[in-house]
C-alpha cells in the first residue's frame, strides 16, 4: 500500500513527518476551520461547494487565506492524485497560523493549510443494513449567539462530549438539542425523520450546520416526489417517526432504528431511507464515471 502523503503549506510530507508548530493557533486554541470531503471513483464530490463553505467559514472568523479558491481546489486534487486513492476521505484544514501563547490573532503569520487524504469508516459496512441506535445527549449544541453553526471550526469539544455520552450508553451517535430543547443535529451528522411518507429535518434556525450531504439528500428526495420540510423538531417527533436517518460526508446515509431506547418504526431501516441511500450511492458513483481527477 502506498504511504500517505500529507500536504502542508506547499509541500507534501510522509504521515510520520507531517507536523505543524506547537505554536500554531489551530492547536493552541482550535483557531481554524475545516472541511471533510469525499472522493468517489477518482472524482471529488461537490468540491466547489466544500471550498466555498471553507472560505465562508474563514471569512466569518477573520482568517485570511492567501490561496485563491481555484488554488485551494487544485491543492485538494493534487493531494488525491499524489496519494493515488480514487475512493477516499479528504480533510482540508486551515488554521490562523503560527503565533505565540497569547490570544491575539494579529501575532499569527500566514495561515496554515493542511490537506490529508486517507480512508474513513465511521461505521462498519454491515451497520448500514441494520441501522444504529442513538440517544439524546445532555450536552447541548453550542448556540448561534456564541458561535454560528454555519462555521465549521476546529473546536468540536461540545460534540465530543456528546459523543462520549453516546459511547457510555452503548451507542455510536447522539442527537443534540439546542438551548430551547429543539432537535439540532447529531455530533457529526444531520438528522432526518420520515412521517406518513414525508421527510422532515431540523430548520437552520435550530442551530445546525447545513450539510452538503443533507442538501443532496433533500434534492434527491424531492426528485422522487417526496415532500421535504425544514421545521422545528422535538424529541417527541423523533419518538413517533416512521423512519429516521443521518447524513454526513463521512457517514453518507445512515439509518437510525432506535432513539433513547424506543424503536423507530419497525425497528429496521425503512423504505424511504433505503430509496434515498440508493439514490445517493448512484449519484456519487454516477458522477464519478463522468469526471475524474
Structure description:
With 293 residues, the protein is of the alpha+beta class. The chain contains eight helices and 15 strands. It has helices at 25-29, 47-60, 69-83, 127-130, 157-168, 212-223, 235-239, 271-290, and strands at 5-8, 11-14, 32-40, 43-44, 88-95, 112-118, 132-136, 173-177, 183-186, 190-195, 198-202, 228-231, 243-248, 252-259, 262-263. Strands 7, 8, 9, 10, 11, 12, 13, 14 and 15 form a nine-stranded mixed β-sheet that branches. Helix 6 (212-223) packs across helix 8 (271-290). The mean pLDDT is 95.
Structural class: alpha+beta
Q: What's the SSE pattern? A: EEHEEHHEEHEHEEEEHEHEEEH
The biggest beta sheet reads: 9 strands, mixed
Task: Quote the average pLDDT.
Answer: 95
The overall strand count is 15
Rg calculated over all Cα atoms:
19 Å
Strand content: 25-35%
Count of helical stretches: 8
Uncertain segments are none
Q: What overall geometry do the principal axes of the alpha carbons give?
A: globular
Helix content: 25-40%
Distance between the amino and carboxyl termini = 20 Å
Layout of strands and helices, then pairs:
Blueprint: E1 5-8, E2 11-14, H1 25-29, E3 32-40, E4 43-44, H2 47-60, H3 69-83, E5 88-95, E6 112-118, H4 127-130, E7 132-136, H5 157-168, E8 173-177, E9 183-186, E10 190-195, E11 198-202, H6 212-223, E12 228-231, H7 235-239, E13 243-248, E14 252-259, E15 262-263, H8 271-290
Parallel strand pairs: 7-8, 7-14, 11-12
Antiparallel strand pairs: 1-2, 1-6, 3-4, 3-5, 5-6, 8-9, 10-11, 10-13, 13-14, 14-15
Helix pairs in contact: 6-8
Amino acid at each position: 500500500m502506498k504511504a500517505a502523503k500529507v500536504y502542508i503549506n506547499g509541500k507534501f510530507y510522509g504521515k510520520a513527518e507531517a507536523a505543524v508548530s506547537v505554536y500554531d493557533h489551530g492547536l493552541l486554541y482550535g483557531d481554524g476551520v475545516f472541511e471533510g470531503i469525499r472522493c468517489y471513483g477518482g472524482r471529488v464530490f461537490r468540491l466547489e461547494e466544500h471550498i466555498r463553505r471553507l472560505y465562508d467559514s474563514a471569512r466569518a472568523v477573520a482568517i485570511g487565506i492567501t490561496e485563491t479558491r481555484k488554488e485551494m481546489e487544485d491543492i485538494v486534487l493534487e493531494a488525491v492524485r499524489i496519494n493515488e486513492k480514487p475512493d477516499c476521505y479528504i480533510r482540508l484544514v486551515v488554521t490562523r497560523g503560527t503565533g505565540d501563547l497569547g490570544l491575539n490573532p494579529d501575532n499569527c503569520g500566514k495561515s496554515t493549510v493542511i490537506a490529508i487524504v486517507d480512508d474513513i469508516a465511521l461505521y462498519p459496512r454491515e451497520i448500514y443494513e441494520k441501522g444504529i441506535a442513538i440517544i439524546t445527549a445532555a450536552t447541548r449544541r453550542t448556540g448561534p449567539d456564541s458561535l454560528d453553526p454555519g462555521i465549521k471550526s476546529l473546536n468540536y469539544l461540545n460534540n465530543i462530549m456528546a459523543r462520549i455520552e453516546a459511547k457510555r450508553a452503548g451507542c455510536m451517535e447522539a442527537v443534540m438539542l439546542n438551548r430551547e430543547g429543539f432537535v439540532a443535529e447529531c455530533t457529526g451528522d444531520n438528522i432526518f425523520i420520515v412521517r406518513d411518507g414525508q421527510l422532515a429535518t431540523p430548520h437552520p434556525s435550530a442551530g445546525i450546520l447545513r450539510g452538503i450531504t443533507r442538501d443532496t439528500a433533500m434534492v434527491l428526495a424531492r426528485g422522487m416526489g417526496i415532500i421535504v420540510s425544514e421545521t422545528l423538531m422535538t424529541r417527541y417527533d423523533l419518538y413517533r417517526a416512521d423512519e429516521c436517518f443521518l447524513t454526513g460526508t463521512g457517514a453518507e446515509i445512515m439509518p437510525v432504528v432506535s432513539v433513547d431506547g424506543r424503536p423507530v418504526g419497525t425497528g429496521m431501516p425503512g423504505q424511504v431511507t433505503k430509496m434515498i441511500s440508493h439514490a445517493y450511492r448512484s449519484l456519487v458513483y454516477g458522477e464519478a464515471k463522468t469526471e475524474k481527477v
